[in-house]
Design a protein that fits this description.
Layout lengths: L2 H25 L1 E6 L7 H15 L4 E6 L2 H9 L5 E5 H4 L4 H4 L10 H11 L9 E2 L2 E16 L14 E5 L3 H9 L3 E5 L1 H9 L5 E5 L9 H4 L4 E3 L4 E10 L7 H10 L2 H13 L6 E2 L3 H20 L5 H14 L13 H5 L1
Parallel strand pairs: 1-2, 1-3, 6-7, 9-11
Antiparallel strand pairs: 3-10, 4-5, 5-8, 5-9, 5-10
């Protein structure tokens, strides 16, 4: 058979294969993954597992790593990412309800956080996962965020008068909190967060222990500092998707899958906290903890009134906390029904 004739006979097959390849590429959704360690980090590794799980749902997911959350945020809003992972306080821009989980001083421990995660995966709350064309399609815990200080005398915000604290440039609530406690806010970004502390530009940063080694925070602690063992936040990593880029049943499947990773994520958190040198922990006396709670929760109520956080979520979180902390600040006024809080 001549070469020209063979080429003519093969052309339909070649065209079909090309069309199939284009169709497959068109079906692939881009998942932009934030991890301070890039492709070597735990969050990116979990995204690889997610990519495999999505195949069982009939989806092709392309992973795109980011170490700069500002670049990820820009690309996501521009439509270059069909979905993206981001810390909960950043997700507040896209879903105020779920983004309010990372509010200060509401959730106190991982038992309470587990109950929050159980509720967020429930189909009963699915309607609250959609907001203005975006959908929260899963979350995992990152861990308690503690004040990391360069002087052990700074064992609370009350003792940080006049000191400098790092705040995210894109989150006005952190600046308002700092100003409330007469602490000087210094705007920074996540890529520069550890460097800002380690080079002495600030005296305090708030950080979960999963980033302690990655950001080499022991450099900023030096010989005088430590970590105040009083969590200011309990952070989450949330997956936010453009709702119209995925099938209708995708959101619940994704939330169910991410919820099943809770134990794995908590295991990472516990390991990282256990790895911290015990000599670095700074413990506050009970009376100081009580005063801390009173002050922080009054401030949180003000921030809710000003519209920075979703009141339904804060009420829900208070309800969960007050199940096990019945004598804690604000529990006397907590709602008596989780369902009521979600309405």
């Amino acid at each position: 058979m001549s070469a020209p004739r063979r080429a003519r006979l093969l052309q339909p097959l070649i065209s079909s294969l090309l069309l199939l390849g284009l169709a497959t590429a068109a079906r692939a959704q881009v998942f932009c993954v934030y991890d301070p360690l890039g492709t070597q980090g735990d969050f990116y590794n979990m995204a690889r597992d997610y990519q495999l799980a999505a195949k069982r749902w009939g989806l092709e997911i392309e992973l795109k790593p980011y170490t700069d959350d500002n670049a990820l945020n820009t690309d996501f809003k521009a439509g270059q990412c069909d979905m993206a992972s981001m810390i909960g306080m950043r997700a507040r821009e896209f879903n105020k309800f779920t983004g309010s989980i990372d509010a200060p001083s509401v959730i106190e421990n991982y038992s309470q956080m587990r109950e929050v995660l159980d509720l967020m995966a429930s189909p009963k709350l699915a309607r609250l996962m959609d907001s203005n064309g975006y959908q929260m399609v899963g979350m995992i815990p990152i861990g308690a965020a503690y004040p990391v200080v360069n002087d052990r005398a700074i064992n609370s915000f009350e003792h940080a008068d006049g000191k400098k604290v790092a705040v995210m440039s894109w989150d006005p609530t952190q600046t308002l909190m700092a100003q409330h406690y007469n602490v000087t806010p210094v705007a920074t970004t996540l890529p520069d967060y550890g460097h800002t502390f380690n080079t002495g530009k600030v005296d305090v940063i708030i950080a979960p222990m999963v980033i302690f080694k990655a950001m080499e925070l022991s450099k900023g602690i030096g010989h005088k500092g430590g970590i105040v063992r009083r969590p200011m936040f309990n952070f989450t990593m949330q997956l936010i998707a453009h709702t119209d880029k995925f099938p209708e049943d995708f959101g619940q499947k994704s939330r169910d899958y991410m919820h099943a990773q809770t134990d794995h994520a908590l295991g990472i958190i516990h390991n990282e906290e256990a790895a911290v040198d015990n000599r670095l922990w700074i413990y506050a006396v009970h009376s100081e903890v009580v005063e801390w709670n009173i002050g922080m929760r009054k401030l949180l109520n003000t921030l809710v009134d000003e519209g920075h956080f979703d009141r339904r979520m804060i009420t829900l979180l208070e309800r969960i906390r007050c199940k096990t902390s019945v004598d804690d600040t604000g529990c006397a006024s907590a709602v008596t029904s989780t369902a009521t809080a979600a309405n």
